[in-house]
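Hey, can you fold this one?
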Amino acid sequence: MTVDAVCVGAHPDDVEIGMGGTVAGMVRRGLSVAIVDLTDGEPTPHGTHERRMAEAACAAAVLGAERVTLDLPNRYLFDSVEARTKLAEVLRELRPRMMFVPYPVDAHPDHVAAGAICEAARFYAKFTKTGMRGEPHYPARLYRYMAVHLRIAAEPSFLVDITQDLPKKTEALACYSSQFAENPDNAGVVPMVEGMAGMWGAIARTEAAEPFFAVEGLAVRAVEDLL
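Sure. Predicted structure:
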């Protein structure tokens, strides 16, 4: 199986929060996308493993993405050789051209660890003479998305216009009823995410956008592509 993009989150709903509109847009334009959750996100106050898996499957179906959930420990996610290897094997199987990973600065230790695991796994995935499954592969581009607990705004490398795809993003987030609708502490998360999309959209001179942060320099084939 080969996909155009792999989007990695520490927990189910991280990718949807940070770049759900971009995922929906890629799929709408004919690209293949896989979401990889490093953990199942449990335990949480209103969730169970079975429920979180059903919610994650619902959200992936809304966005049109494939989904893989690894068995690393929620709350105790750590950048280890084991974690790097598990994700690297997925990358060797899916062979994406692009990789989207969590922003590295956050209050949630799992998110910080996930960013480190992702960048190391990208490198591990190209190893030869290894016991890992699959053939060597190195995703050509790695970009960071923002789904953080800190109230921060950073200067993005680029913004993706998600005006057309914001309804799909909101619909995907609604799948996570155990995390939002049924959890009073998180009742404001979805409206906040929609508001942030509007803020980034204003910066991009459009209605809604999502920010991304490039690890390496970006190039365009023609300057008019920036219009």
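The chain has a mean pLDDT of 97. Let me know if you want another pass with a different chain boundary.
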